[in-house]
Amino acid sequence: MGMFELQIRHFQNPHGFLETEDCCDLQSGGGQRCSTRDQCDTFFLACLKEYQARVASTGTCTFGSGSTGILGGNSQSLRHRG
User: Fold this and answer.
1) Is the CB of residue 68 less than 8 Å from the CB of residue 44?
2) What is the spatial distance between Cα 36 and Cα 18, in angstroms, rounded to a whole number?
3) In Å, how far are 2, 33, 37, 38, 61 from 29, measured between CA atoms?
4) Are 71 and 43 contacting, i.e. CB atoms less than 8 angstroms apart?
5) Structure confidence at residue 75 (pLDDT)
6) Cβ atoms < 10 Å from Cβ of 40
7) What pLDDT does residue 80 have?
8) Which SS3 state, helix, strand or coil, does residue 23 take?
9) 42, 8 in Cβ contact below 8 A?
10) Are 24 and 43 in contact (CB under 8 A)?
């Protein structure tokens, strides 16, 4: 039993792309034009597992997993409020 803490200070996704390189929200007119007005709903998912020489995003989260709620749009600076 234990606790893992991760501090995110800044994230940036200026063009609004998903991990798959698709737009967060495709335009109804078709095509791959990303709208800068419609921001991504950014959140983070963490998966804790044993040491891996080559990190694989698949497989079991041996020590657990967790996720944040939506933190903001495409870019944000987060400050610790103590």
Assistant:
1) yes
2) 13
3) 50, 9, 16, 15, 40
4) yes
5) 81
6) 19
7) 62
8) strand
9) no
10) no
